[in-house]
Amino acid sequence: MKRERRSFSNDFKKQIVESVVSGSATQAEMAREYKISPVLINKWKKDYKTGKFFENVDSQDIAKLELRVRELERLLGKITLENEMLKKIRDLNTKEKKDISSIVTSRDWEQPKGGAR
Question: What percent of the chain is predicted at pLDDT more than 70?
Fold first, then answer.
């Protein structure tokens, strides 16, 4: 009696791998539940990391995603610059406050001109 070879869809493989990678289930649990070899799940994990299950994405979607990435990188750069400027302003303000609130001692005190002697 010859056993028929099973084939699995990319969506099924992706679902199994994402469950294992996310930690919601272990590789052994998934292998037992679906009666597949843990070695096969390992192979699917390698394929997943190389992007094999994402080949059906069309070029329009990729172009939109690349555009979004560029937009987010630009926004990140702008926010980073604003953050650096705010830190410099804060540091300058802190230094001025230290200068204003410093204690005047006899060594720092300048005698007013024309005052009592």
Answer: 77
Contacts of 34-40 with CB under 8 Å at 24 or more apart are 36/8
φ/ψ bin of 40: left (φ > 0), alpha (ψ from -120 to 50), beta (otherwise): alpha
Amino acid at 104: V
Chain centroid to CA 104: 50
The domain limits of the chain are 9-56, 60-100
Give dist(CA 15, CA 22) in Å, integer.
11
Residue with tokens 């705010």: 86
Does the pTM exceed 0.85? no
